[in-house]
Amino acid sequence: MLMEHGLRDDRLAQGLGFTQFLTPDGGLAKQLDGRMDDSLLLDMYRNMVIARQFDRKAVNLQRQGRLGTYAPFEGQEAAQIGSALAIAKDDWMFPTYRDHAATITRGQSMTTVLLYWAGRLEGGAGTKSLRILPPSVPIATHLLHAVGMAWATKLRKENVVTVGYFGDGASSEGDFHEALNFAGVYHLPIIFICQNNGYAISVPFSKQSASKTISQRASAYDIEGERVDGNDVLAVFDAVSRARERARAGGGPTLIEAVTFRYGAHTTADDPKRYRDQELATDWRAHRDPITRLKRFLEERQLWTEDFEADVMADATARIEQALDEFARYDAPNPLDMFEHVYAEMPWHLKEQAAELERAMEKDGMQP
Amino acid sequence: MSRNLNILQAISEAMDQKMEQDGRVVLLGEDIGTNGGVFRATDGLLEKFGEDRVFDTPLAESGIVGSAIGLALGGMIPVAEIQFLAFMYPALEQVLSHAARMRFRTRGEYSLPMVIRTPYGAGIRGPELHGESVEAFFVHTPGLKVVVPSTPYDAKGLLVSAIEDPDPVIFLEPTRTYRAFREEVPEALYRVPIGKAKVVQEGRDVSIFAWGSMLQLAISTARQLQVERGYSCEIVDLRSLAPLDRDTIVASVQKTGRALIVQEAHKTAGMASELISLLNDEALVYLKAPIKRVSGFDVPVPFFSVEDDFMPTQARVKQGIVDTMLF
Ligand SMILES: Cc1ncc(C[n+]2csc(CCOP(=O)(O)OP(=O)(O)O)c2C)c(N)n1
After folding, report:
1. Residues B265 and B171 sit within 8 Å (Cβ to Cβ)
2. Measuring CA to CA, which residue among B192, B195, B187 is closest to residue B167?
3. Alpha carbon of residue A133 to chain centroid
């Protein structure tokens, strides 16, 4: 059990090149650099708490039948938020179906996330202005889109970076390798951020790959690779910040492996008891939780107070309630919307099929 | 000014002129740069436009199509070459799951102005998987446009339209006709609209629908039957398989009352099946005979010792026309 995930043992993790700023008990493993000032630390904490509250709410909504299947991320907040805070407004973000902590931190509305999981067509829109792509459901395919985007920004001489998120399972897909290879060949300003949560649905990383780490794959493509403690928001922030600066200075791509764990199921449609020792989740929560860890550190620095916590929780509640309100106020979906946006201009056959559906929607749909 | 060009030259000229006119147009694919493409469609473009416009990519089809999607998201207009249609299979996920759906998924926030060009079809004595006609995969997928030029004039004009189109276009180039014949092609940049079929030859007795390399077969067979039996065949080149030009197709059958479809693809669930459905819906009462189709067989496109037997032949097309005329 110890090594299934390969991560319970700190020494092992260290041996595999695992970098850390915050130890699990909230101590400092490394000196903070100037960028990590108090306000950033507090911002990290706030975003992590808000994201976790949102995630729990979403799971509940799914149980109430108000959302379809949902992919929870609780436990992975540090990896997502540390990276999201390390990039700038004009950088591009290519998330997966699980990266809502990252997208919400970047400014995506929670309502959009709820709409997405409620199966509403609107759930894929409203993010272009934030330079966030809609969640990718096929595994690893979007990493190539991120590559193309980074390529385009380079050709257009825009000095921005692109980040692509993915899981450990994704690192087995051909598209992951094609993406790293293209990024290396064209020396693109891109950061690949892997949240290695130890499992791809039921398959542990030890069965996913014979490589010990994901970050070591970088060397095969001659790009930068780094393995960080993904439950240490500072370590993630630092690695992504450095990767971003390097990319902007023409230093090319970076592959970052953030070692983390997801406490809950793969999705609300899945039962982790079938394949995972649940003690593992309990253990991670008790000893490595990214929020508790930062909280201890903030307490140590006298930045965390009861008042601050109350404020953060109130903020979370208010934002979630507002999103739920907005979500509830959406009109019933209009089935005719499915014919929109298939092409730039609706072709004749779609017009006719839409008319057919419209007739069917009226009474019994029969014409005299 | 116009010159006598073959299809390849016409295609090359379309890319050249669009690249000159619009700095967003970039080319990517395997061997398209220094080598100018295995069929030379991109010959000379690397020298002319440089390494920031023409990319010899790694050998990775998903990589090519997937990164072309990203390039399009990022404001470029990528024209990707896939060396042969069957080598699109490793990239099908990118084509079907992403290229076709990005506009829909994002409710129109993003569009993907991109073209995937690829030679397709048998008749070139190629090795295995160098002669497939699986246009139906793409026609079946909402969100894609599928264009098949059959002549040099159309090849240039359609490719220009494809590059300017806001939707992803699968541009299928009938390999066998690449250098088969020449035609007057204007030097200026012009467009042939996507979604419009062309009545290549007017006739009274039977409508023949064809595209790609089958068009020439339809024309030569019709000519023979005109001489031998006095049949007056109307020939329609579909040019665009998605969207389909219903009006031209239906009008032709309303006039002739008979129809034959010639497709190189496998028979089952191909484009011909779709055309028969369409005519069933729109022109049944005009029909004097059941609609016939002449197709490739439902076998893997075979090795070249029997390649010609797989493809529709003049004899089979002739028989098809005679059958429908004598029904
Ligand atoms: C191409 C593809 N194959 C299979 C699936 C089904 N599937 C969804 S998530 C998943 C596991 C993904 O694991 P990982 O990449 O580690 O990400 P995680 O969800 O654990 O963060 C699978 C197999 C899919 N979505 N796409």
Report:
1. no
2. B195
3. 12
**B62, B107, B165 ranked by CB distance to A125: nearest:** B107
Report residue A330: phi and psi, to 5°.
-65, 135
Residue A368 pLDDT:
58
Crossing angle of the two packed helices A290-300 and A233-248, in degrees rounded to 10: 100
Q: List Cβ neighbours of A182 (8 Å cut-off, separation of 6 or more).
A: A144, A147, A151, A188, B57, B58, B60, B63, B67
Q: Which two tokens stand for residue B255?
A: 């006039």
Buried b (16+ CB within 10 A) or exposed e, B85-118: bbbbbbbbbbbbbbbbbbbbbbbbbbbbbbbbbb
Burial letters B257-266, b for 16+ CB under 10 A, else e: bbbbbbbbbb
CB contact under 8 A, A349 and B246: yes
Of A259, A308, A206, A334, nearest in space to A82 by CA: A259
Residues in chain A closer than 8 A to B68 (CB atoms): 148
Asked if A228 and A269 count as a contact pair (C-beta separation under 8 A), the reply is no
Among B70, B107, B143, select the one facing A147 at the smallest CB separation: B70
Classify the C-alpha dihedral A117-A121-A126-A131 as positive or negative: positive
Q: What percent of chain B has pLDDT over 90?
A: 98
Q: Structure pTM?
A: 0.93
> pLDDT tens digit string along A203-251?
999 999 999 999 999 999 999 999 999 999 999 999 999 999 999 999 9
Rounded Cα gap, residues A70 and B59, in angstroms? 37
At A122, is the secondary structure helix, strand, or coil? helix
pLDDT tens digits, one per residue of A303-356: 999 999 999 999 999 999 999 999 999 999 999 999 999 999 999 999 999 999
- Tell me the DSSP string of A166-194: EETGGGGSHHHHHHHHHHHHTT-SEEEEE
Instruction: Check residue B147 and report its DSSP letter.
Output: E
Whole-number Å distance, alpha carbon A256 to ligand 1 midpoint, is 19
Residues 132-171 of A with CB under 8 A from B: 133-134, 138, 141-153, 155-156
In tens, the pLDDT along A105-144 reads 999 999 999 999 999 999 999 789 999 999 999 999 999 9
Which residue, judged by its Cα, is nearest atom 7 of ligand 1? A139
Whether A302 contacts A89, CB under 8 Å? no
Residue A257: how many CB atoms within 10 A of its CB?
Answer: 28
Using alpha carbons only, what angle is made at residue A19 by residues A13 and A20, rounded to the nearest 5 degrees? 105
